[in-house]
Amino acid sequence: MVLQASRIETEAAETGHERDLFEVAVEQFEIAAEVLGLDDDMRRILGHCQKELTVNFPVEMDDGSVQVFTGHRVQHNSVPGPTKGGIRFHQDVTLAEVKALAMWMTWKCAVVGLPYGGAKGGVTVNPKLLSQNELQNLTRRYTTEISMMIGPNKDIPAPDVNTNPQIMAWLLDTYSMNVGYSVPGVVTGKPLVLGGSEGRSEATGRGCVYAIEEAARARGMDLTTSRTVVQGFGNAGSVAAWLMGEMGSPVVAISDSRGGVYNPTGLDLATVTAHKRRTGSVVGCKDAEPVSNDDLLTLPCEILIPAAMENQITGENAGEIRATVIAEAANGPTTPEADAILFDRGVFVLPDIFANAGGVTVSYFEWVQALQAFPWTEQEVNDRLRRIMSRAFLAVYETSERHGVHMRTAALVRAIARVAEFTRLRGIYP
Question: Does 186 lie in the same domain as 280?
């Protein structure tokens, strides 16, 4: 089945209405639900988020003034088990975005077989404008505001855009102080000394590369001669770039929020990393020419890894993509209209709900270790992650071939079928 340009995207163009991210997530769900033959009642249940909390809270700044920030925590579906999802601090955070990310987390957990539903959180703030003390005050107050929703057997946050192990440590401490005892299982992505897992910080990028290896094997590609382009040089993008380079793939372009650098013969990743550490950006790195984030997406390459923000590959630029394989380390980088164009052109897309599931998978490992108070080695973590990513790829690829749909729809078909089955078996209470 060849997917046509999306109905909602067409309507948006006609009315001038710019779709929010949740509309995109719902449309992707509806496409897969149609393939699956899901009944209307189940579509209504799974097409909504179960709980949405918006909080407006004051934070005292270093100069003594008070600023009010808006935060959200959304739980899409708790039927499979406790909900799981990151917390992002970004100036563009909206409730619609958080809802979409929560829905995608449900499907992501289901694709790789984790006993979780999906959740997400965020605060509308540019954390780069805050001091360390202000960032801690914001984190602790936000944690207190959402504390009734989170818990080790209820909803487990993790790092996301602009959040890190230190922020997770503050979240852990705040929650633990409120309940009166230490609860290491309330959060994942925390520092090792506080019960974090070996391999967690590299898990999203590593899982993405495992997915690329599986795709290359299935499609007969030689990664040592395949050029790689990475949009976004944060945690996931930098790890993916380094691992691709270690396998022999020439990494020809890398970007961050300020812009990118390009060398058609391959970048020296050590030089790029040192330059970013010194200047705060990859822009201006020696032995490379500048390239914009938009132009980077259409550079000649075999492997394209979008590891930045959502809505980067759209109906406007999908026809210019020259990659053979796109591996989505970011959440929601490709719109439904772009999916259809890429599928028609034979571009093989490893969708976010599979390709970047390494992070939540190792978060699950961390949660299990916390509940058991029994740490695993990094080798054990990586071996288990590889097995899960390999098994999930084969299942999704088989579904894609059977239904004649692209990998995103195939992944969604498998995920939605799993969550729908849970829902049918549990029923509706009361």
Answer: no
Angle subtended at Cα 31 by Cα 356 and Cα 386, rounded to the nearest 5 degrees? 25
Residue 303 within any structural domain of the chain: yes
Name the one residue in this structure whose structure tokens are 């390239």.
291
Residues 163 and 303 grouped into a single domain: no
Q: Is residue 154 among the annotated active site residues?
A: no
Q: Strand pairing partners for 354?
A: none
What pLDDT score was predicted for residue 17? 53
Give me the catalytic one of 120, 190, 276, 286.
Answer: 120
Does residue 164 share a domain with residue 214?
no
pTM: 0.90
Q: Are residues 143 and 245 in the same domain?
A: no
CATH code assigned at 125 = 3.40.50.10860
In a domain, 299, yes or no: yes
207 shares a domain with 249: yes
Number of H helices, E strands in the chain: 15, 12
Domain for residue 310, yes or no? yes
Strand ranges (E), 273-312: 289-291, 303-306
DSSP 4-31: PSPHHHHHHHHHTPPPPHHHHHHHHHHH
Cα–Cα distance for residue pair 169/28, rounded to 1 Å: 35
Name the domain boundary from 194, 227, 252. Answer: 194
- Average pLDDT over the chain, rounded to whole? 94
Q: What is the pLDDT of residues 114-159, one digit of tens each?
A: 999 999 999 999 999 999 999 999 999 999 999 999 999 999 999 9
Cα–Cα distance, 113 to 100 (Å, whole number): 20
| Token output for 143 | 């944690």
What is the average per-residue pLDDT within 395-415? 95
SS3 sequence, 316-368?
CCHHHCCCCEEECCCCCCECHHHHHHHHHHCCEEECHHHHCCHHHHHHHHHHH
